[in-house]
Amino acid sequence: MTQRLNANTGVGLWLKWTLLVWMNAIVGLVVTWDNMRQDGVLYWLGVGLGVCVFIPLYALAERSLRRRGVRGIGKALTIGVIIRALLQIAVVVDVLAGMVGISVAENVVGAAPGDAKQEFGFYFVTTVVTGALLSVVAWVLTALVLLGMRLVARRRQPPLVTDTTDPTQTTVE
């Protein structure tokens, strides 16, 4: 009665996306470590819930695309998100997305970092906006991976050859 944990369905799908989403957030957490220590619980709640917003989005997106029959989407999306996580080493993309996130949060919430009355909202909005921008990067990478997978699959298939004497007959060479 033991059931194998499958990363493409059910609980395995949710665990996979929990791991991948938090893996994509790790550099941002390290870079803002001082804020975590100074701002405490409200920072953790705002950032933690902001990151968790993306877990169901990715899990449900993959499940929906699989059900619609988009070939290779699970693999391509996973690879795209892993590449995005590895791109954190070059912090520029994350920093730019974070700057936009802070700017939007300042305008939407009407608070700046350190404003005790708006800390949770500020950090939550900053995290969600930053994550949305970085998700666009991940989806672009996913599209490129999916395109590459399809090009490789086409090259592996034998070409169709048409008999020039009888155009209705097509044979595989």
Highlighted features:
transmembrane helix; 72% helix; membrane; mainly alpha; 2 strands; 173 residues; two-stranded antiparallel ribbon; transmembrane
**Beta strand count:** 2
| Structural class estimated from helices and strands | mainly alpha
Helix/strand order, N-terminal first = HHHHHHHEE
Please, what is the average pLDDT? 83
Helical percentage: over 70%
The rounded Rg comes to 22 Å
The parts where pLDDT drops under 50 for at least 5 residues are: none
Number of helical stretches of at least 4 residues: 7
- Global geometry: elongated
Strand order of the largest sheet: 1-2
Strand content: under 5%
| Main beta sheet strand tally, sense and closure | 2 strands, antiparallel
Alpha-carbon distance between the termini? 48 Å
How many separate domains make up the residues?
1
What can you tell me about this protein's structure?
The structure is a single chain. The protein has 7 helices and 2 strands; from the N terminus they run αααααααββ. It has 173 residues and is mainly α. It has one domain (10-172). A two-stranded antiparallel ribbon has the order 1-2. Strand 1 (160-162) and strand 2 form a beta hairpin. The model has no long low-confidence stretch (mean pLDDT 83).
Quick overview:
The protein is mainly alpha-helical.
Tell me the layout of helices and strands:
Blueprint: H1 10-31, H2 33-39, H3 41-52, H4 54-67, H5 73-86, H6 92-109, H7 119-156, E1 160-162, E2 170-172
Antiparallel strand pairs: 1-2
